[in-house]
Structures are given as C-alpha cells and as structure tokens.
Amino acid sequence: MNPDLTRATAAELADALAQGTVSSVEVTQAHLDRIAAVDGQVHSYLHVDGEGALAAARAVDERRAAGESLGVLAGVPIAVKDVMTTKGLPTTCGSRILEGWIPPYDATVVRHLREAGMPILGKTNMDEFAMGSSTEHSAYGPSRNPWDLDRIPGGSGGGSSSVLASFQAPLATGTDTGGSIRQPAAVTATVGTKPTYGGVSRYGLVALASSLDQAGPCGRTVLDTALLHAVMGGHDPLDSTSIDAPVPAVVEAARRADVKGLKIGIVKELGGEGYQPGVRARFEESVQLLVDLGAEVVEVSCPNFDYALAAYYLILPSEASSNLAKFDAMRYGLRVAPEGVDAPSAEQVMAATRDAGFGPEVKRRIILGTYALSSGYYDAYYGSAQKVRALIAQDFARAFEQVDVLVSPTAPTTAFKLGDKLDDPMAMYLNDIATIPANLAGVPGMSLPSGLADEDGLPAGIQILAPAMQDERLYTVGAALEGALIDRWGGHLLDRVPELTATSEPKGA
Amino acid sequence: MSTSITTEAVMDYDEAMARFDPVMGLEVHVELHTNTKMFCGCPTTFGAEPNTQVCPVCLGLPGALPVVNEKAVESAIRIGLALHCEIAEWCRFARKNYFYPDMPKNFQTSQYDEPIAFNGYLDVELEDGSTYRVEIERAHMEEDTGKSLHIGGSTGRIHGADYSLVDYNRAGIPLIEIVTKPMVGAGERAPEVAKAYVSALRDLLRALDVSDVKMEQGSMRCDANVSLRPKVGGDPLSAEQLAVPLGTRTETKNVNSLRSVERAVRYEISRHAAILAAGGSILQETRHWHEDTGVTTSGREKSDAEDYRYFPEPDLVPVAPSRELVESLRGTLPEPPGLRRRRLQGEWGYSDLEMRDVLNAGAVELIEQTVAAGASPAAAKKWWLGEPSRRANAQAQDLVTYAAEIGLTPAHVAELDGLVTSGRLNDSMARQVLDGVLAGEGTPTAVADARGLELVQDDGALEAAVDKVIEANPDVAAKIRDGKVAAAGALIGQVMKEMKGQADAGKARSLILDKLQ
Prior knowledge:
Number of domains of chain A: 1
Distance between the termini of chain A: 30 Å
Radius of gyration of chain A: 22 Å
Largest sheet of chain A: 8 strands, mixed
Number of helices of chain B: 19
CATH class of chain A: Alpha Beta
Shape of chain A: globular
Strand order of the largest sheet of chain A: 4-6-5-10-11-9-7-8
Oligomer: heterodimer
Number of helices of chain A: 16
CATH superfamily of chain A: Amidase signature (AS) domain
Keywords (chain B): ATP-binding, Ligase, Nucleotide-binding, Protein biosynthesis, Transferase
Family (chain A): Belongs to the amidase family. GatA subfamily.
Largest interface: A-B, 44 and 29 residues
Structural class of chain B: alpha+beta
Structural class of chain A: alpha/beta
Helix content of chain A: 25-40%
Radius of gyration of chain B: 29 Å
Order of helices and strands of chain A: HHEHEHEHEHEEHHEHEHHHHEHHEEH
Helix content of chain B: 25-40%
Largest sheet of chain B: 9 strands, mixed
Number of domains of chain B: 3
Distance between the termini of chain B: 83 Å
Family (chain B): Belongs to the GatB/GatE family. GatB subfamily.
GO molecular function, one term (chain B): ATP binding
Protein name (chain B): Aspartyl/glutamyl-tRNA(Asn/Gln) amidotransferase subunit B
CATH architecture of chain A: Alpha-Beta Complex
Number of strands of chain A: 11
Shape of chain B: elongated
CATH topology of chain A: Amidase signature (AS) enzymes
C-alpha cells in the first residue's frame, strides 16, 4: 500500500484497517490534512466536518479494538454529495435557498454509511439541485478539475469527482439523474456507477426528478466502487420505488473481472459525429481490449436514443418544477422579504425568496416544467415524452436480447474550460447525451477511465450499460477492462494527475 | 379591518322553483380514522398540541418520500364497495400543484384521472319515505392539508388578519373525496335531497367504521355545487327538462353541518334565481357559507383557468388491489344502514313515528347497544330520548358526542333500567339517578347508593303508612269502600309523601284496596 494514506485505494485501506496496521483516526486525519492543504484550489467541499469525522473514526477504532465484527469499509472515510440529508450537518444542494438548513434526519444512504462505520469527511459541491454538468451552477462557486484547474470537474457531482481525483477522500457518494455520477467520473479519470433505478434508496435525497434520480457510488477503482455500492444499496421501506431484492453481488463480480464469452454491444447512436476524436480513439482501444480479453463485440442500434435528450428535458423539468415547489420560505431555509412592500403576504414572501434563492438554471427548468405540465400542453409535451421514454426502454430491451452489456463513450468530450458553456444551455445539455438513456429506462450504468485524449491530454471515459437488476455485469466487465488498461498504462491513470501544490490558505469550511 | 357582508338579492324560494330547475353536485371529504397518516407513520389524534404529530414526510422536508398507508387504501375500497362503485384494478396517485402555506410540499398528493373507486350510487331515503338515487362519480384518495389559523381581523379569514399560524398535525391525514354526478330531477326538494344524501353518507361511513364523521370537527366536510337552469313543464324528470343545458355553478365551501347543507343549497338557489331573473349571469366561483347569518359570500374566483398541473406522482408506485383483496373486503361490509334500520324497527317493535324520533335523535346505535346490554327496547328509547337528548339538543351536540363527553354509556342506561325492573327504584327515583349520572357522580348503582335512593321494601313500614293515611282520611276511605276505586289515587299520593317517595306506588295501591274492600 502507498505509504501516503490518501493515495491508497479504499480496498487497501480496508485491509490495513482490518489488520490493524493503521487506525481510522490516522486515515481520517490524513484526509483532513489533505483537504486543508489542497481544497482551497479545488473547492470540492461545501462543508468539512473534521470533528464529526474524527469522532466517528475514534468510535470505529474502539469497536475494532473491542473485537467487534465490523463491515468491510468500517473506518474508511467518505465524502457525501450535498444533495443527501445529513442529520446535524448542513445540506444545501448547492443552493442559496437552503443556506443554513440543518436537516433533522439522515438520508437512508447516509444512515447506511454511518452504520458501516464510515467517517463522513464533509459534503461535496454540486450544481444547484443537481442541475448541470460542470458545478458552475453551484451557488457557492464551481469545483475545479484536478487535471487542469481551469476546467470543469463534470457535474452535477463535480465535488465528488474532484474530491477523488485530488485524493481528498478515497470514496464519495453521488446521484445521477442524467449522468451526474458518470460524466464527472469520465472527465476526472475516476469510476462511478448509476445503479438500477430503485437499487439504492432515494429517501433523504433532495429530489430533482423523482423518476430519474438514482444514488450511486464513486471511487478511484472498480472494486472500491463495488465495495461502496454494496454498502449504499438495498431495499428501503421508506422509498416506495425501492427494489425489494438483495443488493446484486457487485463485489464478487468486480473480483471476478472476467469477460470471456460475453457479448458486448456498441451503441451505434452513441458515438461518431459530435464526439471528440481523442475520446473516440480511447473508446475504440478499450473495445479492442475487451475483444482481446475474450468478449464478442457487435454493433447494435437503439434508434429512439436520438429523442432521449428532448424527452429528458421535458420529464426532468416537469418533475423538478413540482419537487422544488416546497422551497417557499415558510418552514426552513432562506426567507427574503420583498422590497418596498409593507406587511407582505405569504405569497409575496414566497415569490421574493424563490427569486433570490434560486439560480438561473433552476429558474429556467422550473419555468420549462411548469409550462410542460400546463393544461392544454400536457399531452403534447409530458405525454409525448413519456411515450419516448417507453420506446427507449424498448430499445434497451431489444438490445439486451442480443448482448449482455452495451458500451459507449461516457461523454462526447473531455473536460471543457470553466465558463465555456455557461451561456449556452443547449451545449451544456448535450454533454449528457450518452448518459441520459439509462436514466430514462432505469437501467444501470458505469463510467471508468479509458485513457487520456491525444489532443488535450485530458481523461476520457467509457460507459458500460447493463439490463435492470444486472448491476454485477458492469463490475465484472469494468474490472476486467480496468485491469487490462492499467497493465497497458503501467499504473493507474490517476498516478499521472498533476501534483497540486499545497497552499497555506485552506478553504474555510 | 372588518368586512361587512353585503346582503345580496335573493328570490323567494317558491317563486324560484316556479321558474328554475336546480342541479346539484356534492363533494364530500372524509378524514379516515386510521391510526397513522396517509403517507407516513405519524399519529392522527384529533386535538393534539399543534405541530406535535409531524415528521419529515408530512412536513415535506427536502428528501422525504411518501409510503402509502395500506389501511387507508382498504378503507377507500370498502367505501367504494359500499357505494356500489367499481374498484380500479390499477390506479395511480397524482400531484395537484398549487402554492399555499398550509400545504407543506406545495402540491397535494391526490388522485386525478385514475380514482380508486368510480361509477356507484347511494339510495337516499327522504322524509316522506320515497327514495332518491344519488349517482356517485368517483371516490378517490388524497391527503389533508395543514390547518391555517388567521389571527386578528374580524372574520377569522386570511383577509384582514394580522398574522397566520399553521398547524401541520392535519397535514397528511388520509382523506377520501366522494364526488356525485350532477344530481338532477330533485326539483324543489333539492335542499332536502342534499341534506338526506350527506346524512345517509354519514350513516354509511359510520357503519363502515372508517371515519369519525364529525362535521363539527371537520372530519367530514361538504362542498355544495349548485346551478339553475330554466324550468320546462312541471316534471323535473321529464326528458324536456333533462335536455336543458346546465347553468353556471357556484361551489359553496365550509358547509359543516347537516342543517347547513340544506340551508346553503336553498340560499344559493334563491340567490342564483334572483340574479338570473334580473338578466344577470352567474359568476363561476367559490362561495363561503356563513352559519350565523345564513348567507354565502364570494371567495376566490374559481375559473377553468385554474391549472393544477396534475401529473402522476413519481414517488409512489401504482395501487393495484388484487380481486381477492377486493372480494375479501366486500365480505367485511356492514349491513346497509337502510336495511338495518328496517330490521331494527321490526325487532324493537317501534312504530314509524317512534323510529323516526329515534333516527332524528341519532340514537339508533345507543339503543342497539343498550338493548344488547339487557334493557327492553321501550325502556332504552325512553331513557335515551329523555333527559340526555334534551341536554344534547340544548348544547347543539349530537347525542352520541354528548353521551361520550359526559360519560353516559349504554351499559349505564341498561343498568338504570335494571334497577327499575328489579323493583329497587321507581321511575321518579330513576330520573334522579340519571341526573346524578349526567352530573358525573358515577354509575347508576353508585348514584342510587350515594343518594340513598331505594324503594322501601319493608312492608311493615308501608302498611303503617297506609293505616295512618286511611285513618286521617275517613271520607276518602268511605268512597273507596263504596267502590270508587279511582279515589285511591289521593291516598296513594299521601302514602308516598309519608314514605318520602321511597315506596312502590303499585304496592301502596294494592295495600289500600286490600284494606278497604
């Protein structure tokens, strides 16, 4: 194991903790020190909870000393996306409207983490209410890509991806509504999985679009991601849409790492024009590696994927416009009095607060969704989008009759420069073109690094998609490919990420 | 700021009925008395400290998710079945989106175009014994909102209030909304039909044991839609009359007693008639009923432009009750109230008039339980319809509520009756005992003991009193000896006085007659 504890994988840390060669307090403190040194430059965290993390670490060390049997990841610290409620810790979703709100309850996922003995280092940055692909829509400023601090770390989960790529946590949680786990993983050379819809509880995830949102694990290796997946997942009676079945055997699948005899489909519609040459080249190399490993590769067509983005941008804003209605200043969060109004009514306070508390992208989507659901437009917009959604699910079903998994580049490009697409929402939306179909159909997807693009030297990602409830396939294919790529590279891609110079001005938490 | 209610023109009801045909639609909201709320595990106890029965789900905190209360779904299905509805094989919840401070999520989780129950009817018995069939459009599930309390101002309404308080204890209580199809053909009896429908529905829901159905506490609430159309001919059910298009409706809210249902419908008919007769047109709007003044006033305008942006609730999975479940729930339905009333009337031997008194007093269940506890039907009726009914009326409470509050149970009444039939008490003593029970002095036996009320069983004392009275009234005694038995009454009175009321008058009478004949 790397003597620098922040460079170790979660699996390595877990082994060392189990063997007693390091304590959770040491591991946690090493990460807190790293955060203090580099987060001023990366801005991955919105809130760091050093005290709470160390207290949890001490508690798990004591339990281990007392001979208690603990979970695999006990003592391994983690960063939590700020969209998940954490009892006693701020939860802002990257929005001003929730500034200062301390949830009175833990999300089910967070409860799982605590029960597994994982110290929570802090809350990671995100696009406001998970709307965006760059973290530039965070009300608290963007996170930066450790590969190039002038570039975006992906979004909405850019806080979680940059935390991993800058070694400020070995693991992080994410949520993926249209690619918010996978696209950030792709542009930072990290790994992220969107599980099957319903595989991880949504209870305590501040909802963006209920029928699309899915929480999942983020790590630096496929195995680490699987270990976290197993902790996060499982049936939750508090979430009606949660699947009542055991978590798929993802850890075993990652250890198996075998693609011999598997049929892999390349999605014709997710590639080619609009995809950066370097991204395509790395993708094609990865596919060749899979063939070399014994997989059979064929091309499959999913013709309705062409309509996925349009359908997504009707369904998501519609649900979001309703989900975000609760932010009205009446019970919690920001409250703004309208200017120049004596004794304002509740409605006037609601309007003033929502005007001041929501950023432009959130307002844009609330307006879109409100319009799409309006009487007279519902059938044409929301109704048609749901039909497209059914057709996309049908495309997946047909494809999975022919192949075991599908593959595509995760995102069409490598990380773009901060500010590049901020004034062009459509260009920003197009970044999720390859990841959105999985959310519409509820199937699981993973992104892992495929290499660095020749033209800019920045990471590219490959996406693996599997049928619903077959999340194991992502891990066995992902781990096999990861192994072959690391052999080719002579080490993990993240070994090449530029060293961040420690600054003397740690970001105030 | 005080709002004065402007009196609107109304037309004399009979004149209105001579010119117009009324059509009604009633929407009744019923709070189910499940132990927990519709989508979370919070308790539903009425009258708890404000905001103590809340959790992240019913407060709509960020991240919280709903889970359907299966008991509430079962109650909804039972209500649907009792209303002869079809039960959906698959239906969804929908979000009804609008902003209001007492609605935590700013949408209400309800049902829209896929109600759990639809296409039913309820036969309603009118006072003359005829039956009106109310067609049921649908019964759907939804959650209640919180309760706003507007402080300051004169009306208790939001306009003019200094500030408002919100109690979210009520937010998320399961509600069933039962919507009728347009009720046509009632003619001049429309107000009576409206009241009879709500009353029959209340009886049905009470028999189903799904709700407290207390209109005064808001666990049953009625909105009355009324419209008028020109009258054609004399028969409100004629094809010509039914072919006339419906007029513009108003929806009157806040109708919180049976009497108000009748009055509010009647008022709106007269008000509409005056406007239409003067050549005006009805504004489609919400009206508020004022119990005290007996008028409605304009609420917010409710036009078709109001857009709730319904869409299927993505946080919940569809409700798909199996046919086995539906049939097993059908097996739990109680006897329909109308049939049950006729059966009980037969068993109890009451005349139609007596049964109507019992119904009007709301005493059917109480009498049934009292008879089950051992009293005779006649005695049970006599006691319940006496002092307890009089006092409940005086307090404008229904008998069941009054009895529950005062602590008078069917077992008490049966016990009281037992004290009379066993000869321990006479009627006037029993009335004193009942007063004691109503005053909270304890059970009938305890009250009789404490007050020392007991017929004197010692025949010696009674005989001595009889002898004394006969001796003191030789002229009356002579009349009785001459065969004027009726004169004994005067002596019995004196004997009872001698015995301080604690004697069996019948026994005194036979003693007197024995001695003088």
